[in-house]
């Protein structure tokens, strides 16, 4: 598990509409959604995801609310 994987996931979600649509269409079942994320090659925990968000925000000059 890694922050780097979470950063890659966030960037792909921002850039790849088809990828984002697949994940959003399967987002109602949290366990199934996490399993799908892992089968797509991403492996991170929620704390790592939050760290990745901070990195991406900083990279894009975004101030979180």
Short description:
The chain is mainly alpha-helical.
Task: Give a verbal description of the structure.
- The chain is an all-alpha fold.
- The chain has one domain (3-60).
- It is built from four helices and no strands.
- The protein has helices at residues 3-15, 17-25, 30-39, 46-60.
- Helix 1 (3-15) crosses helix 4.
Notable characteristics:
mainly alpha
The total beta strand count reads 0
* Share of β-strand residues: under 5%
Mean pLDDT, rounded to whole units? 91
Instruction: List the secondary-structure elements in sequence, H or E.
Output: HHHH
| SSE-based structural type | mainly alpha
Topology:
Blueprint: H1 3-15, H2 17-25, H3 30-39, H4 46-60
